[in-house]
Amino acid sequence: MAKGQLEFQEEVDAARIENAMWRSWKADGSGDHSGDHSAKTEKLERVRGSIGDSIDFSQIRYPQETRRCRYDDLPTFPVRPNFAGFENALQPASQCVVFDGCPEDPYHPSNTPIYQTSTFVQPSSSEFGPYDYTRSGNPTRTALEKHVAMLEHAAAAFAFSSGMAALHTVTRLLKQGDEILVNEDIYGGMHRLLTQDCAHNGVQVTFVDTTNLTAVAKAITPKTKIIHTESPSNPRMKISDLRKLATLAHQHKVLLSVDSTMMPPVICQPLLLGVDLVVHSATKFFSGHADCTGGLVCVRDPELAHRVAFLQNAEGTALAPFECFLFLRGIKTMWLRVNRAQENTVQIAKALAKHPRIKEVFYPGPGGCSSEALRIHNSQSSGCGCIISFTTGSVSFSRRFLDASRLFKTTVSFGSVNSLGEMPCTMSHASIPAEERTLPADLVRLSVGIEDVRDLLQDLQRALDFASSQKPPPEHDGYDSRFEDLPVVPRPPDEEVSRHMSRHMWPVDFLAFRAGNSPLLRVYR
Ligand code: PLP
User: Fold this and answer.
1) Residue 353 scores a pLDDT above 70
2) Ligand 1 mean position, distance from CA 407 (Å)
3) Distance (Å, rounded) from C-alpha 441 to C-alpha 392?
4) Radius of gyration of the chain from its Cα atoms, rounded to whole angstroms
5) How many CA atoms, within 13 angstroms, populate the side-chain half-sphere of residue 412?
6) pTM attached to this predicted model
7) In the annotation, is 218 catalytic?
8) pLDDT digits over 292-314, tens only?
């Protein structure tokens, strides 16, 4: 770059940095826009204090080695919202529906618009507006990221095109020669990413049982930079003590990353437990309707947030505006959906545990794990979630059960309003080579939806009865998403029907017929 160009670039960068700092300070609501660093630090410390943080972040900041703030290291514009600016005392149910979608939109819409544009016009070639290019930043995405940051108590949140893109970004914090310790019982896609991608790029991947703190402590080496786990794990529902893992990780200057897809923020907020990075496949509970894919990375440390923002922009993995809109919409009902589905889950787990053909039920509720695991789970989240896994002792029995179920659709994924079922070994976790898989082959995973629990219980009973019988499989084309396949209302014998009709139906039909033919209704039909 020629000298003049370089100076111009530096000037522009300086202006952007100043602009960004001012905006972030303004968003802080402190009223002081002087950019006074000590006041900012004090505010940040207060926020850290308020989320129970006693860790010296300057010690564990990784992998950013310098404090110097360069344009390339900065988050996209405007600066990523910091939780410091919108800390509030609302309960999760209220936080799901509050609105802060687009404060600068001239039409003041009451729902976040989809800013479906790739570029934004700038005031001049040397002045810049808040957004310039959607890969770097988009108002619909900012609204989503801000909402997620609030729900997760994060310094910043980042929306990605899928849960895997979010997980990939976490692994990109590592460089060649670094080591990541990963829970043995990890989601199949993450297993594939680590063993067939990261390992090939010189990152050492070590699997460890994160429910066993002694084993984790033993496995940590000077090369270890990240510990990554899930609690409950998917699909064995093993519980790791996140507080103790965070303390252990921080003692060794290691970051703790948690894939909390199973535990949406309305029931668990791992950053408050000391976790550094929370990842979600937003495809599950944030969407809630199985209509879009997306991923989230939520970060507690603003310095680490800079690095994630840089990767999101540099690698072009950010979520598109329309999907951001769908997730914003999903968040509004997340508390309601999750709570209703959890109530169903408890009843279904109880019914399964009592059934003679079910061997073991795995879920973070009574009878679904050890009392110690349940104690830990209850100390770090306010609910059991909506996923249950169980074994039957026979792969063919498990298959017959799933094939016979009408309401638990055979589908990978979870967290939708409707109930789903799958066999992890051949479906969600099939990417783990058989010889490395620790899952029982007969394991069934259910994702419980928000249907009337009586229908779900009846459907399970019917499917279990069918699986226990010698009957041949039902004849249908396998894609069981047809109304015709739903359980039918039992038909009373003919004379019962006519007696019932004569007593109740006839006058209603007659009145409907008369009303339907009245001249007034005909006008409005
Ligand atoms: N994490 C967990 C626990 C998952 O179950 C999944 C997908 O099923 C992912 C991450 C990947 O998310 P996505 O499918 O949105 O890429």
Assistant:
1) yes
2) 22
3) 10
4) 27
5) 15
6) 0.80
7) no
8) 999 999 998 877 888 898 899 98
